[in-house]
């Protein structure tokens, strides 16, 4: 049997690739007409996530269209709160709602519903059976702090102030929430790996709102615990950490959590990241999703700057945050052609 090389997986394992492997955060989603059609047919986002055959199809759609080096499981970071016993809904034109919100309801009052994650593992098995052999399959979960911001407030927010206040006001109760999310996340990611994903990413979308001491306690410490548990159970399976908004705290995050690779958002200068992240550590990022919408020479220049800055280490080309809904498909094609042709 010949084994096919997977450039993204090799890069995550520390081998620099001559052409950086590429995938885009939120690459399965609303900028794709084939996604919108299937979502309408299934009657909404959660119906899509819970229908494993449809979720597998959505995971593969961007691979079929663009040939990205990585496929990311189609699910959501809020499946963990659902498994911990909150009811999850997405109202039309609104963000997610989780009830009861933990700002006024004890964690101990929730009834665990881990079976709500079973359709996700079935999606993983179906995708793993269908992906092209050179494509790396990525699982994911939210990091405890980011997931907690939704569980405590019951909804998304711009500055996470309800959850930050809760964490200062009752750190013992908040530590229990973080502990419960962490335990569930370890189990969830382990089962994704057992079902067939080859690497996992921890999304910490709201880590940028924390003070340095709170960042140490609610971002670095729980992520370190999750990474250690995953490495013990699944040696060799890379973990990507993406602490969006971490800014100058990024090098400490990279050193102290034990992640194998670090995601860099678009607010960070790639040359600063290259100079300040541990030598040889794989980095992922960090094109501004808005310059992908602009396209043309602005996009090519921004992409080149990132390619140059990370030329000496393992680099996975990605956006600095999720792809936006109004991104022209032609610009995604041009970006891929550019990355794969330069040098
Ligand atoms: O079709 C739709 O209307 C649903 C939009 C949507 C999609 C496509 C949601 C609701 N979730 C997802 C899928 C999703 N979410 C993926 C699958 C892979 C992919 O799309 O390629 C992933 C990795 C996520 C991760 C996620 N969900 C994050 C972390 C990453 C990030 O963008 O910061 C967060 C914060 C969420 C919560 C969430 N889910 C959905 C929405 C609208 C939100 C954000 C709510 C808010 O802004 O607070």
From TrEMBL:
Domain of life: Bacteria
Signal peptide span: none
Site (Transition state stabilizer): 76
Gene3D superfamilies linked: 3.20.20.210
Subunit relationships: Homodimer.
UniProt keyword Cytoplasm, yes or no: yes
Coiled-coil zones: none
Location(s), subcellular: Cytoplasm
Protein name: Uroporphyrinogen decarboxylase
Family of the protein in this entry: Belongs to the uroporphyrinogen decarboxylase family.
Principal place of residence: cytoplasm
InterPro entries: UROD/MetE-like_sf (IPR038071), Uroporphyrinogen_deCO2ase_HemE (IPR006361), Uroporphyrinogen_deCOase (IPR000257)
NCBIfam families: hemE
Domain Uroporphyrinogen decarboxylase (URO-D) span(s) in chain numbering: 21-30, 138-154
Species lineage: Bacteria, Pseudomonadati, Pseudomonadota, Alphaproteobacteria, Sphingomonadales
EC number: 4.1.1.37
Organism of derivation: Sphingomonas psychrolutea
Keywords of this entry: Cytoplasm, Decarboxylase, Lyase, Porphyrin biosynthesis
Pathway assignment: Porphyrin-containing compound metabolism; protoporphyrin-IX biosynthesis; coproporphyrinogen-III from 5-aminolevulinate: step 4/4
Pfam families per the UniProt record, alphabetical: URO-D (PF01208)
Record's function text: Catalyzes the decarboxylation of four acetate groups of uroporphyrinogen-III to yield coproporphyrinogen-III.
Reactions performed catalytically: uroporphyrinogen III + 4 H(+) = coproporphyrinogen III + 4 CO2
Binding site for substrate: 26-30, 76, 150, 205, 321
